[in-house]
Amino acid sequence: MPEKEPTTQLDGGFSSPRALATPWGDARRVLDEADIFWLSTIRGDQRPHVTPLLGVWLDGSIYFCTGRDERKAKNLRLNSHCTLTTGTNTLGGLDLVLEGDATEVAEESGRRSVADCFESKYGAHFVAPEGTWSGLGDAMRTGDVLVYRVAPSKAFGFQKGGPYSQTRWDFT
After folding, report:
1. Looking at the domain assignment, is residue 2 inside a domain?
2. 98-115: pLDDT as tens digits
3. CATH code: domain of residue 19
């Protein structure tokens, strides 16, 4: 099934003169290549919680995993709205902010596909016995950890360097 192509809009009020909207294909490449994402959720007392995590882009969504008792899982049980960000910590490149609702991937075939994608992307970190996350792919497949899917409802791109631009993509 092909991914839904979002509508693209340049926010001229926050962009350099003569800036152009960033094409969604450029954002997709950043999502595919990003090693680390930052997940923002809301605690039960309405305080924000932000944490770095690994993620993969697959079939139009970002996927990540967590333990059942971790703060992010507790927060998502109370409120599925979340934001994922990635990009650079320099004044060049493209930063991305994706907003959506996290849903648990319950079916085994979905967890298996996500685990395969994580292993392909992160390589030895996942598959080597001495890898940092050795065994996590198997834990995803068996349901020993929660796997979440976030299909973005909207996303923002902040192009830095050259002309600065702010692009909005709407998936609704």
Report:
1. no
2. 999 999 999 999 999 999
3. 2.30.110.10
